[in-house]
Design brief:
Radius of gyration: 18 Å
Strand content: 5-15%
Helix content: 55-70%
Oligomer: single chain
Order of helices and strands: HEEHHEHH
Strand order of the largest sheet: 1-2-3
Shape: globular
Largest sheet: 3 strands, antiparallel
Distance between the termini: 14 Å
Length: 171
């Protein structure tokens, strides 16, 4: 069962990364020439080269982003493997997959382009331009917060602790 679950997770993660990379390739080929106004005054697709993180912080810190991404993916993988095969943890396993897809989607850009391609711009709130991988991460964070506040208690995660006793308690 674990192999089947891991295979599905890997496939889903790959598909999400492919979707992200396709949108970025289309952005480079189409939007580099001109913006596309999807909803006037609301949503514009535009081409932005982001060499930093959210809101443009940490500009040109490629090594920093690489290390942080590797650490975060390791954390997601650890949590995914340790999460119990119970229905109540299914959403958390899926969040590990979407977080990983978002992190890898942007890491691929940093490695092969030297920057992350962003393209989605909400005009009314003048929000920073973002991409599909950023959506995976942001939506996952919102869902995680809702789940943590309303669906789980502190002791529901004792099995994630590295000590042998806590992990064996639920297995």
């Amino acid at each position: 069962m674990k192999k089947k679950r891991a295979g599905f997770a890997a496939l889903l993660c790959t598909l999400l990364i492919v979707l992200d990379q396709i949108t970025k390739a289309l952005t480079v080929s189409v939007l580099k020439v001109h913006d596309i106004v999807v909803i006037p005054g609301v949503l514009t697709l535009t081409y932005v080269e982001n060499r930093g993180a959210a809101f443009g912080i940490f500009q040109n810190k490629k090594i920093f982003f690489f290390l942080i991404t590797v650490v975060m993916i390791a954390v997601f993988a650890y949590c995914y493997v340790r999460l119990l095969n119970q229905k109540s943890y299914r959403i958390l396993r899926m969040l590990c997959v979407t977080y990983t897809a978002g992190a890898l989607g942007n890491l691929i850009d940093r490695i092969f382009r030297g920057y992350v391609v962003d393209m989605i711009y909400f005009v009314p709130i003048n929000f920073p331009v973002f991409n599909v991988a950023d959506c995976y991460i942001t939506v996952s964070t919102v869902i995680l917060l809702i789940a943590l506040f309303f669906c789980y208690q502190d002791d529901d995660f004792s099995f994630l602790k590295p000590s042998g006793k806590a992990g064996k308690k639920h297995e």
